Amino acid sequence: MASRRSTNSCTLVIPARRRSTRLPDKLLLRETGKTVLQHTYEAACQTRCPRTILIATDDEEIAAEARRFGGQVVMTSPDCPSGTDRVAEAVRDNDCSDVIVNLQGDEPDIDPQAVDSLIESLWANPSAAMATLATPIQKKSLLEDPACVKVVFDFAGQALYFSRNPIPHAREWQDELLEAEPPLFYQHIGVYAYRRDLLMRIATLPPGRMEQLEKLEQLRVLENGEKIMITVVDEPSRGIDTPDDYAAFVKLKQAG
What's the pTM value of the predicted model, to 2 decimals? Predict the structure, then answer.
């Protein structure tokens, strides 16, 4: 599978962990006739830029399901502390692509064009080590929700900071701020593209003070002086974390 490395090569990895506290075995749910994992894989297959798509897992049942629908599987250690570590292990000895995309297995609604735009933003900015997605926030409840990670970025699209708190902070609040054009507030969407060199180094970088305070791993990259490019998309993808998320996904598929 490995080939000579080039500056415009890309591999997409879907880290697929079996256990989930809020929705057990969610990747194997199949009320639509296909598992969540298969839906995510098929969305990934609609992207143009990645030359290879891998499913990285430590679970034999996940691996068997992936092989059933034709996915290419890489078995990884059960001791991987995060999805990022699982992605890094999957490509360390099996792939030489310059850019690696991390797409979680519970993102069946991801827009393939958004993933391609993410990759292209990294190719277009050689000094950046990483890229990710964001979408405008237009609800105050979402802006104030610590589970919704916010991001601010400069005129060139380079991330300045990520936070669970509302950023930027309006000294004098007006509801009209949520309708500003261009938007003032952005939600971070956790799909990442990494330069291979950074991906291999992330686990060895010292955790930053802000990372530990906010519990946001992407801050480690900024605190260590690396650039993160932000690609803005119109709508957030709807990841599946809870039974309600899955019920809404099934309803949407049945209606479509």
Answer: 0.92
